[in-house]
Amino acid sequence: MSSVATEQSPVHGTSHGEETGLWSWITTVDHKRIAIMYFATATIFFFVGGIEAMIIRLQLMNPEQNLISPEFYNQLFTMHGTTMIFLVAMPMAVAFFNYVVPLQIGARDVAFPRLNALSYWIFLFGGIYLNASWFVGAAPHASWVGYATLTSSQFSPGLNTDFWFISLSILGIASIAGGVNFITTIVNMRAPGMKMMRMPLFTWMTFVTSFLLITAIPVIAVALIFLGFDRLFGTVFFNPTMGGDPVLWQHLFWIFGHPEVYILILPAFGVISDVIPTFSKKPLFGYPIVVYAGILIGFIGWGVWSHHMFTVGLGPIADSFFVAATMIIAIPTGVKIFNWLATMWGGSIRFTTAMLFSVGLVAVFTVGGLSGIMHASAPVNLQQHDSYFVVAHFHYVIVGGAMMGLWAGLYYWFPKVSGRFLSEKLGQWHFWTTMVGFNLTFFPMHFSGLFGMPRRIYTYSADLNVAIYNQLATVGALIFAVSAVIMVVNIVKSWRSGEKAGANPWDAPHLEWSIPSPPHHYNFPELPNVQSREPLWNAGEREQILAVTMGEAKEEPHMPNPSYWPILLAASITLAWALVMTGVWWIIALGIIPVFFCTLMWGLEPAFPEGH
Amino acid sequence: MAHAAAADHHATNTGVSNFKLGFWTFLASECLFFGTLISTYMVYKGTALVGPYPAEIFDVIHTTISTTILLFSSLAMVLALHYLQHARKNLAILWLGVVIAMGAGFLVMEFQSYQKYIGYGLTLTSSTFGSSYYVLTGTHKIHVFFGMLWMGILAWRIHRGKIAAPQAEQVEVAGLYWHFVDIIWIVIFTLVYLIP
Amino acid sequence: MSTDVSAQSGDHAHAAKGPGEDHSSVAGYIWIGVILAVVTFVEVAVFYIEALEAVEVPILVILSTAKVILVVLYFMHLKMDHKALTWLFMSGVILAVFMVSALLVLYHVLPRMALSL
């Protein structure tokens, strides 16, 4: 067996013993590389969605402006929402699941490395397919929620909605595969002593999120099939003239859609549940409660969906049930907030950028949560629904909540991934321009919303007197855009020439900090033995673990083979779905053949080198 | 609990293989997939604006027979697995063949039903009953067909000596899939054909 | 039937035994198959017997639930396997049942109640 190189490899995120070069990345099944690809791709899509937002903000800056056509405006906000949710927030969280979870539980990789790669390539191809719609002038235009009957072939005759339902169907496969992968990994691949109730909170939230993914995505997958069939084959699922119910679309969409927002936020909650204790030098306050609160949020989150439908007329009994459930879910969320605060209380706090983003999340998410509670009341909701008040609410919780949490994760784990710190100076600039830009953009929207500005309109009358709020929002958006640029500058600069970081630069408690930065491609030379929730904060345990984890492997551990079937299968799946757009049965059937072939070849290929 | 040996990548916390555990997790997601299809059928029950209506066209006896065939195919499946686990290669292949044959029998009978219903005027597009019925049951049939292909490949690999008793889990997991598809049909049979 | 769920797939300590050993578990499977068929015929009978119309729905639901449980527990071996598998699968089952029930209530129960409000 080849001996492992002894010097720390340069900061390209690869580790000793691993191939370099494009082909090695195309065939990689290494969770760390896949994570980097996810993060980079999600960041690119972040800028795509951001540009879409900037054009929107420019159009809305003044009343009765005509910088762009209404149709183009509809495409912009549809693509902005669809991109940010499915191509940015979710994949960026998955980037962190991928990099961090195996390291936190003491595993060499995830349970299904090739399936992991498949999820990434499907994401990439699905995202490209969705954005290809721009190039044919047919970007989706019926909003990210795609309500029937607006999305019917009668009212949306072009390819726009076809691109939409097909892209989401493609992307959904990646999410379900990922969910299965992480559940299996977490249940089955923990190091000795790593009981479930010893796992870091980030891994716990990954676990809950994975359950939400595998249960919620199938629902929208079916809803999209119904929509596709209605559009292409004339079924009547949402056709009221034939007895179909457009409201059924809303039910099915939101049965997915509400768990989806918990899918967006729980990873961020997980990140800060790890970051805050580290930079408070105190274990997480009330660990079991935070875990159970996360599980409860996931579970109750399944029972609140029609709070998106209070204006539909479901009746007082249905409405009351959903009001109650929605208010109840605020409780476990609030509990988490108190636990984070209690963790900081009496702690020795360092305001690193990661900590700033984490504390920022707590503050900003609370604002978003408060507007959420307001929405939860059905009568109040009748005023707020479809107004900018809603836009304010969800940007506070998704950007201020989910994204800031992930950026905290970026600053926290970047040293582990690259062996270098992100610049704290640029980080401070990043954080403060984000806070100023973000709040300036979205806080005024509470007002424009309550003063009657509807959402999803390409312009508004001057008589509405909301111009000032729109102007403030546009200025804020520009500042926010600057913060995004600062972030990328920071990443690029620091990757090349950032201050070097060792194995545990933050003196953090969990297992990912017990190995070199960046890790060997096999993560752990030997699996450590864990005895507590904060292994590296307990003296004896720490020594015993580091003796095992900071060494070199005596012989090259068995790692899964690279494979080209994931990218090929992802391409086949994308092609098969793209052919659905033709609406011709036999063409679609032909498209399934490469999928079948690639799946078969994958199944016949050994996952590990022979002789294991 | 897991073993500490670094090179032992087979050891799992539960003692169950990743493949089997992951597949059960996948089946949980399939519950939601079919649950949505079934919910939609149930929501649209009784809402069709035009006929034909279920009571007019469903041949419960015919469907009972096809259902029973599918049920017995699950029996054939466990027998196939049992014999493979006991290194009775040829019996395993035989019983996998029975699974495939019974699956085919189910599909043939069900397509006969489809033809009859179309003759009565029930199509994908004729009503909410038609749309929800064909998409629900059609999806199920696609699952059955895929299962048959899977069993065929397994039977072939057993025949070629690539799968023997130590690899029986591959057949076990395929069996989980097959039984699950059978379960879905049990639910469909009751909710679609029997419940008024 | 094997009860041990060791990581090594389907590895049994014993070699193929004589027909006596095989029959005991094969017989068990056949019994389950027969029960499933019988329950199916009972369901169909309940469907046809008009006298039972009032209680038809609960009986059918209970009977098919019983069939599902038999297949899951015995054919799919869930009863004898690690509890984690039960938890994983049941998470999907419970949510699916909840969804079907919720939509049924929203579409078929509440509208009828609303008429009396």
Written overview of the protein:
The complex is a heterotrimer of chains A (612), B (196) and C (117). With 612 residues, chain A is an all-alpha fold. Chain A has a single domain, classed as Cytochrome c oxidase-like, subunit I domain (Cytochrome C Oxidase, Chain A, Up-down Bundle). Chain A is built from 17 helices and no strands. In chain A, helix 2 runs antiparallel to helix 3 (70-105), helix 3 (70-105) packs parallel to helix 5 (160-188) and helix 4 (113-135) runs parallel beside helix 16 (565-580). The radius of gyration of chain A is 24 Å and the shape is globular. The N and C termini of chain B lie far apart (50 Å). Chain B is built from six helices and no strands. The model of chain B is unreliable at 1-9 (pLDDT under 50). Chain B has one domain (34-194): Cytochrome c oxidase, subunit III, four-helix bundle (Four Helix Bundle (Hemerythrin (Met), subunit A), Up-down Bundle). In chain B, helix 5 (128-159) packs antiparallel against helix 6. Chain B is an all-alpha fold and 196 residues long. With 117 residues, chain C is an all-alpha fold. Helices cover 70% and strands 0% of the residues of chain C. In chain C, helix 1 (19-48) packs antiparallel against helix 2 (56-75). The longest helix of chain C is centred in the C-terminal third of the chain and has 32 residues, at 83-114. The radius of gyration of chain C is 20 Å and the shape is flat. Classes of the chains: A mainly alpha (612), B mainly alpha (196), C mainly alpha (117).
